[in-house]
Structures are given as C-alpha cells and as structure tokens.
Specification:
Length: 72
C-alpha cells in the first residue's frame, strides 16, 4: 500500500511508532490521520502526513474522495 490511514491512534506506543516509521514512513509513503484532535508526534511533522481533525463518523464522501485523489 502507498497510503497508511490511521484512525484514533495517539502515537503513544514507542514500539508501534517504530514499526510505522521504519517499515512504512522511511519508504516515502504517505500517512493520513483521522482523529478528533491532532496527535502530538514527530512522525506527523517529519513525514508526509495529512491530518483530518474530526471523528470517523464526521468524514464526508468528499473527504474520502480528496484522500483518494491525493494519495500519490
């Protein structure tokens, strides 16, 4: 996959963060985060990341079309 969609994860687990970074982000792939509040993590600032500050149920069809269009 060229796009990682992260829903409701606060980036508080160093082990999972390490896997996300070394196996995915360092490969130049993009990460989309959907959460009611932008998590505080250097992974968001250091890599190709887009944040949607809303709940999953508030994501519109237009949001999903935008994500699909910009996943390259």
């Amino acid at each position: 996959s060229e796009l990682l969609v992260v829903i409701g994860y606060g980036f508080g687990d160093d082990g999972i963060n390490h896997i996300i970074e070394t196996k995915y982000l360092t490969q130049g792939k993009k990460m989309i985060i959907i959460d009611i509040k932008k998590p505080s993590s250097r992974l968001i600032d250091d890599y190709r990341t887009e944040v949607y500050e809303k709940s999953l149920s508030d994501m519109s069809m237009e949001n999903w079309i935008e994500i699909k269009k910009n996943c390259g």
